[in-house]
Amino acid sequence: MRPGNLKSRRTTDHVPHDRWLVSYADFITLLFAFFVVLYASSRADQQKQSQIAHSIQSAFQALGIFPAAPPAPDRPTPTDNPNAQIPPVNVLLGDDLAAAPAVQQDLDRLHAQLTSLLSPQISQHIVTLRLGRDGLVISLRESGFFDSGSALPHPQAKATLDKVAATIASTPYDIRIEGHTDNVPIHTAQFASNWELSTARATELAKIFIVDYRLAPARLSAAGYDEYHPVASNDTPEGRSQNRRVDIIVLPRISVVPAQKP
Known about the structure:
The chain is an alpha/beta fold. It folds into 2 domains: 23-69; 90-254, CATH 3.30.1330.60. It has helices at 3-13, 20-63, 101-117, 119-123, 142-145, 158-169, 194-211, 237-243, and strands at residues 90-93, 96-99, 127-131, 136-141, 175-180, 220-224, 245-250, 253-254. The strands form 2 sheets. Strands 3-4-7-5-6 form a 5-stranded mixed sheet. The chain has a 3-stranded mixed sheet with strand order 2-1-8, covered by helices on one side. The termini are far apart.
């Protein structure tokens, strides 16, 4: 065999070992294009959902079903600190919701005023005060205001009710009165269940505020919740005693009460 033919054969038999890089590069390019398409599709879906939601809201507003919503205020960052102050509440005047930071200060003032006026009852654990999400809660425990199974406040409670009524009467805010019981069933000639008892206590207290203390009826509402809004465990006598209560809640809401004719 001649040398020239040997050299030609060796050249023909040489196979490059890096051809896989071409296929790998093509695969990476296709994979990148695939994820780009997925990302673009997801962004398009979000935009479509936003457009659909805006169209539905506009249609309902045009029909008068939903009122036009004002721009949402910046919300404070949530905190796990239990001692953090309650965020400012809003005051609802008629049908208009407007930010009213002064209302929070007003409720704080009422809380301090009632704490001073009712300090003997608070020390006796028959009245508690707290600022909650709904407003200022004045909680009257059954042991200091009602006989067991009765919806009528006993005469000894009048002095406390006088102070509470005089204080809340000087405010413009609405009042919600809530009756609560423990989980021990009741069945008497007057009340077939704790639903009736809790509702009757709230309604009776609302009537007293209207008749005896001249609070405007439009400012008041009453509800009974039976055992279903407890503040303590019903597994102990002390817990059940705390749950048997009537809550008077000063709400950050002002009703438009028409002026009475002379």
